[in-house]
Amino acid sequence: MAEVSRRRFLALAAAAPIGLRGGGGAHVPAIVVGSGFGGSVAALRLGQAGVDVLLLERGKLWPHDDHAQVFGSESSIDRRMLWFQLLANYPGLPAVPMIPYPGVMQVDVQPGITVLAASCVGGGSVVYTGVTLQPPRRYFERLYPSGLSYTELDRVYFPRVRAMLSAQTVPEEVYNSAPFTHTRVFDAQFAAAGLPVERTPSTFDWQVVRRELAGQVRPSAIVGESSFGNSNGAKHDLTRNYLPAALATGHVRLGALHEVTSIRREAGRYALAVTRRDEDGLTVEQLELTCDRLVLATGSINTTRLLVAARDSGALPGLNEHVGTNWGSNGDAFVFRPYTGPVGPSQAAPIVSTAMVDQGYPVPIRAESAAVSLPGQQPVLHQLSIAVDMDNRGVWRSGLGGQVGLNWQASQSDPALRSALALSERVGGTTGVGSAAATAHPVGGCPIGAATDLAGRVHGCPGLYVLDSSLIPGNVGGANPALTVSALAERAMDQIVQAGG
Question: Which parts of the sequence belong to the Glucose-methanol-choline oxidoreductase C-terminal domain (predicted)?
Fold first, then answer.
């Protein structure tokens, strides 16, 4: 599918007011909550099927600019980076004071782990490092319900998503440029250790990266920016493909800065309490919206919170005991190790190289060459590791005052961290400094085949669907979540639309 231009997308968004101003409420046939990988797929496919959809997103729709800094970054910290924080509590950042603001990243500190989640139109596609890897079959088939065919995903849905996201491996001249020096060192270390390295498809726009290298636009990707967005549009994020295509159907309306705070079912409909904010994050009004069909796609921690709260309060009593379970960190571990050798003027953000190591460690582990986002030349490598952990899972439960929190012990991250440090020692000669105290890839909480059927239909709640990372059974299986979440959503929407539901 050809991309809808950025200008066309912004025009469609501006020309599609959701028509819910002035308080009160409204009823719509279908609501999709969340505009990340799952929600964008759902909105597009429903719109193409002629279903009128209201797409709600708690975060802002951010512009792109070739020369201005639209987002903050690790080297230029400001309120645009974080979702309503008084202090910059993002891992690795100094705890500088901030004015609460609807920034692009939520930092959710839970006992034992800090969870990172996107909060903007386009969701995680805006703030991730572009990796679009599928899990190896050998791990997928051990983790997921037997009714999910890996062959079907491999032949139909993984390729469909990669095409929609324009995912491509890094061009040779970009790989050989100075800002990718750290990646070439990473690759050489793994090759010397006898571990094969592969190029991963990426959603970075290599034409924009080339323009950065040529000095034609403000540097962003080549100086390590990604975790809080690329101001110059250096990624093929969802605001360049699924979302504009959804709005172009004429059946999808976008409501940015609309946060769903609770859901319930009454009189055969779903009722949503919604907070609408202005551009500075100030509450403008409280709404109640109703719909016949509801798709939750707000990501692992936020979809899970909504559902656990609704079940335990009696608002959705039909939800089963699997809601809130099988949550995991996807085995995330971060290792920084020094090295001797060439350095570049900066470390480019796109992750373009990866190695899957199956044996010799507490758990199988995938290593990816990430950037160190510090100014100047840094003889330090960042090994982002994703472990295939079959066992360690957390549970979300309601507590005092109805607050939903995570039961997770820090020790549950130990197998992933031990594997990451041992791998670093093998390839780099030093364990370096490692941490598994945070995850950028939270998954699970509404596991597919347990809390839902294999198309995301939530058991016990007719007309309610979950299509996001909360479906993943605690671990993707040796890959970043983006491609798998999108492929599962595409598969589910094919079935849902074909069934007329």
Answer: 436-489
Cα separation, 276 vs 89, whole angstroms: 25
In a domain, 241, yes or no: yes
Full-prediction pTM beyond 0.90? yes
Report the alpha-carbon distance of residue 461 to residue 154 in Å, rounded: 30
Measured CA to CA, the distance from residue 79 to residue 71 in angstroms comes to 9
SS3 353: strand
- Confidence label for 117 from pLDDT (cuts 50, 70 and 90): very high
For residue 275, the model assigns a pLDDT of 96
Cross-strand bridge partners of residue 246: none
Number of domains in the chain: 1
> What is the average per-residue pLDDT within 41-52?
97
Give the residue numbers marked as catalytic: 368, 441
> pLDDT above 90 covers what percent of the chain?
91
Check whether 377 has a pLDDT greater than 70. no
SS (H, E, C) 239-273: HHCHHHHHHHCCCEEEECCEEEEEEEEECCEEEEE
- Residue at 71 is within a domain: no
The Cα-based distances of 355 to 92, 183, 363 in angstroms read 25, 12, 14
What mean pLDDT is predicted for residues 26-41?
97
pLDDT of 500 reads 79
Query: Is residue 470 within 8 Å of residue 302, measured between CB atoms?
Result: no
CA angle 355, 360, 361 (to 5 degrees): 80
In this structure, is residue 1 part of a structural domain? Answer: no
User: Could you list the residue range(s) of the whole structural domain that residue 382 is in?
Assistant: 6-65+76-498
Would you say 120 and 127 are in contact if contact means Cβ atoms under 8 Å apart?
yes
- Phi first, then psi: give them for residue 144, nearest 5 degrees: -100, 160
Is position 305 within any domain?
yes
3-state SS string for 420-442: HHHHHHHHHCCCCEEECCEECCC
Q: Quick check: 70 and 44 in contact, CB under 8 A?
A: no
Domain with residue 466: its CATH number is 3.50.50.60
Three-state secondary structure call for residue 447: coil
Whole-angstrom CA distances from 278 to 58, 166, 256, 258 are: 11, 33, 9, 9
Region class of 19: left (phi > 0), else alpha (psi between -120 and 50), else beta: left
Q: Lowest mean pLDDT of 7-21, 191-205, 395-409, 427-441, name the range.
A: 7-21
Indicate whether 2 pLDDT > 50.
Answer: no
pLDDT value at position 22? Answer: 43
